[in-house]
Amino acid sequence: MGLVQFENGNVIYFPYVPSAAAGYAFLVLFGLVTLIHIVLMFKTRTWYFIPMILGGICESFGYYGRGWAGREPNRPGPFMLQLMLILVGPVFIAATLYVTLGRYKQMMLNEPTRRCSPTSFFVLTDIIAFCTQIGGSLVQVTGNPNIMKIGDKVVLGGLIFQLCVMAGFLALVIRFYRLTYRTILLRGRWRWAIIMLAVSIVVIWVRNLVRVIEFGQGFHGFVSQNEAMLYIFDALPMISVMILFIIFHPRFLGSGTERSKA
């Protein structure tokens, strides 16, 4: 296990030369989408989208690191930049999903804001996942194989923990959809907004699963050896989630609900 390889006393960070063009392309894409989210947040005063923006910033600079690594693949700087930021970016985006469900409950069911709520619990688990993943990735440049193996296990544990938490959150979203479908006539974009929330959770869950496989297989694994896997199962899913939240931004949903007589 391990995402780097030691050969003749030297550290090899990539089993290939990363594509600078692909890295810079996704830097531009994530940068543009993040900028749109910033404009929407200030325009609509949806401050709880700050984690989404932080996630977009992490993704942007992470893919800048990929582009940089395409020019200097043997330097630790670009490797750490892309590993750490691309790894933790979805943690911030997931936090936005957790808070959004709470906002939907307030907007659709007129529930009061509570300090101790399922949203608070999921945000707390997100903080734990962030700490484990950032801590495990930081030790990848220590040069000590034993410490780096421990870091790999810490990151792997954080990803598995996040998989379990997100599975529980998906069950909560499905339960919420069933509840509102029975008691409220969902109109137009509201129904699709809840479906979009569930789809986003599934997308991030699959992304995390692929990262678990990557850390489990190590440097010589199929995921690590094929750069396309990063863009297919990480870059594209995360940019898709951010775009979905622009299309189904809570501010654009309006009231959109009508309580049923039953």
Automatic annotation (TrEMBL):
The chain crosses the membrane at residues 20-40, 47-64, 79-101, 121-142, 154-177, 189-208, 228-248. It comes from the Eukaryota. It is a multi-pass membrane protein. Pfam families: RTA1 (PF04479). InterPro entries: RTA1. Keywords: Membrane, Transmembrane, Transmembrane helix. It is found in: Membrane. This is RTA1 domain protein. It comes from Bionectria ochroleuca.
